[in-house]
Amino acid sequence: MERLQKVIASYGYASRRKAEELILNGQVKVNDTIVTELGTKVNSTDIIEIDGQVINNEIKKVYYLLNKPSGVITSTKDEKNRQTVVDLIPTSTRIYPIGRLDYDTTGLIILTNDGELANILMHPKNNIPKTYLARINGLLNKDDIERLKNGIVIDNRKVDTSDFKIKDKNFDKKTSLIEITIHEGRNHIVKNIFASLNHPVIKLKRTKIAFLTLDDLKIGEYRPLKIKEIKKLYSLK
Ligand code: URA
Question: Model's pTM, two decimal places?
């Protein structure tokens, strides 16, 4: 880890003093976040931008689609030493997950070192659809269905829950399988939606983000994204 102004100077972009000015003026971004703190430390995989121009762009961008198993956390490291999604992909590049899935949720998650793509997929204004299969307790009645059609208020903000299908009803076990597509990424959102209908989620799997699906990736398997898929994700901006 090195001080940001030293790294900028080492790329020959500016003298160290000039680099300090650029930082204080808010002209420097590290991994897409403006940094105005002179002591900030960076390493060789951090992406540094000055006035919108990446100055260390020799770092290869990588993109993976993972079918996350249950019992793995969506983070780059864990203080309790639990396995993370990053541990499942052997790469020397410092990657991180875009968005999150709960510890017990399985399914599709993208990992990358591309902060710009992460921003595109996470930004609420881009309305990226995400589809989940939720096994819930109980069977939806007419009132539940009506409420889902109208949208559900979670923490004082309405979620559009109108895009859902009942895929299966198990009358013996009194459970249902619901496919639901939502356009936001608040934590535990699907569990909170069904909890508010008194149908707690028993099992949750994300099956789709925008046009990307799991296809035949088994749990714990991953694949690199194709260039045309990366371009298509960028076009969702
Ligand atoms: N909603 C949830 O409740 N959990 C997830 O992991 C993803 C969406």
Answer: 0.77
